[in-house]
Amino acid sequence: MALRNCPRERLYEEILIPALTFARLELADADEQSIFRAIREIVIKLASDHQSPLHATDEGKSFVRGRILGCPAGDKADELAL
Hints:
This protein has helices at about 10-25, 30-50, 75-80, and strands at about 55-60, 60-65. By secondary structure, it is mainly alpha-helical. It has one domain. A hairpin with a 2-residue loop joins strand 1 and strand 2. Helix 1 (about 10-25) runs antiparallel to helix 2.
């Protein structure tokens, strides 16, 4: 899969969130922290590259973009998932 051409939603759902889950459940703490740092850098890069308009269209449908406030439930993985 070419990640540069992948929709952001798909990148989050199919790559980043599963990587966070794997890191939290399967890796030692030092490796987990390394994965979290890498994912944080990716998320920051994605956010800086994406300049979303207030109004957007999707297949002829118009909608207004908004912001959602979230609070991480437990740890760094939850924080990054937001």
